[in-house]
Amino acid sequence: MSHDQASYLELLARGAAAEAYDRPLLLARASGAGPDELAALDQAKQLALRVRAELEGRRRREAELSALFETAHDLAGLRDLDAVLRAIVQRARSLLGTEVAYLSLNDPSAGDTYMRVTEGSVSARFQQLRLGMGEGLGGLVAQTARPYVTDSYFDDARFEHTRAIDTAVSDEGLVAILGVPLMLGSQVIGVLFAADRRARVFEREQVALLASFAAHAAVAIDTANLLAETRSALAELERANEIIRDHSGVIERASEVHDRLTEVVLRGGGVHDVAAALSEVLDGTVEFTDDDLEAAGADGRAIRHGDDWVAAVSAGGELLGALVLRGHRDLDPVDRRTLERAAMVTSLLLLARRSAHEAEQRVRGELLDDLLDAADRDPRLLRERAARLHADLDVPHVVLAARIDAAGADGSGRDAGGRGSDVAATGERETADRQRLWSAASHLAATRSGLAAARDGGTVLLLPLGTRDSASDLARQTARQLGGTLRELVTVGASSPVAAPAGDPGPIAGAYEQARRCLDALRLLGRSGQGAAAQDLGFLGLLLADPGDIDGFVRRTMGEVVEYDRKRGTDLVRTLDAYFASGMSPARTKDDLHVHVNTVAQRLERIGRLLGPDWQSPGRALEIQLALRLHAMSVSVAR
């Protein structure tokens, strides 16, 4: 081996560039070497270049395999799908040394493939691109499950060009594109791309390399998906376990409530014991109330009222009270049923207590009857009987008359439509209403240390008057409480206070008559369902309470005018009413009546002859106007 030939070994050893292998041959020619020596040098050059190429190929394959191994290792350590996809695209771009790399995933529901991750892309249109199966190079890869490569995208006619795809590729400036399928078994899940913005030939080894990398990437994607599904399944299992634990806790609470309520009933507890037991189990404050029951449902269901829950305590259509759970804006169905069952137990306890107290209520009624009917009873015996009922008849009391006013009734024995109702059915209903009213009033009287009795088709109560209450306040409270309990319009009239019924029972009967007149006045005035005392109604109310006084007052005040109209068919009463309504102005009166002013003057002259010359004086005018109002109302009631 000559010195010149040995120089090729030196070039191989130091990994010189390919151009350096021409130098020994050029130097030999320059030094005048013969043809045989030049031929031998040329042969040595070619052999050295082949060895160099083989070494370069092995180094490249070693680098690619090393990079492929590192990539697989990196992908195996990733758990988040987005991180996996970004790593795939970044490593593909790095392995092939391209300007752009991107990945699309198939969408089975839409039947196309869409751009999922890009690296090196600058076009928003390209990053949002969707390709139909068979459209563009990527759509063709996704459809055929085979790699495709093009040196010049726009000059390649092997795949379908669409305006949307070509525009996006043009925006990105891509020319050479290589695409390989991402495969899971025989299923294509997406496409991995490497691309350059200049013409480039992708060698077979590069295609194989990207395909091998895509295989690792597909497995990594599948693993990430499986991990995501596993996490989701674990999360759902955790939620299911939480639900099971919650339900178990609710069932345990319901069982505890059942045991506690059973214990309360067996040991003879009351409604407040039920509320206390329920408070502990439901982890809140439960109270029993019989005031202001508008929020309670009529069907026994627990309903939300603001931040509270209310369950009606009722029996036989009568609302006895309500259980109120405070401070629980949200309540699960089992706890709601627990509250409803507790309300049912409470109603049973109240009914049992009511049955036990009915005898006491009858005794209360008998004592009130004696106060009303026998004013000469021995005060000592009255006090003793009252003490056994926990009533104190030596303090001021008020007599109240109460009656149910059926909705829609007009007082004529006919229904709202004017048809005659069945007499027997009406009688039974009225009897049942009186019984319900007496029962509710007796319960109210017992809670207020008072007395109650059924009387004159309604109910009479004798209730102590608080130091801060008036007879009017007591009447309104009683009407509201009885109406709320019975869910009916209950009208209540009250008397003036009676100082000490036990010491002097005599005024009780007069007070009861006063309360009845007040009740009748309220009903005549259309104030059914309200409560009031005599002093609330004024002179008009007291007159309305006794229809006999109406006729007498009207007859004494303007009877001659009414009689004149009746006999002659004139319109003096209407003229008189219009005259006062217009401020005693004949001009405005004729406008209201649509007659001539002379006609008004003639009628007023006739009225003056009938009523007397002083009929327009302030005192007489006030009486006449009141008589006109009473006459009009009495005519309306008669109709």
The structure class reads alpha+beta
Compute the number of strand runs: 15
Low-pLDDT runs of 5+ residues are: 408-420
Distance between the termini: 147 Å
Rg, Cα atoms, Å: 53 Å
Task: Tell me what portion of residues adopts beta-strand conformation.
Answer: 15-25%
Main beta-sheet strand count, sense and barrel state: 6 strands, antiparallel
In terms of quaternary structure, the protein is single chain
Overall 3D geometry?
A: elongated
Tell me the helix content: 55-70%
Please state the average pLDDT score. Answer: 80
Q: Give me the side-by-side strand order of the main sheet.
A: 3-2-1-6-5-4
Count of helical stretches: 20
Question: Care to describe what's here?
Answer:
- Helix content is 58%, strand content 15%.
- It has 639 residues and is an alpha+beta fold.
- The strands form three sheets. Strands 3-2-1-6-5-4 form a six-stranded antiparallel sheet.
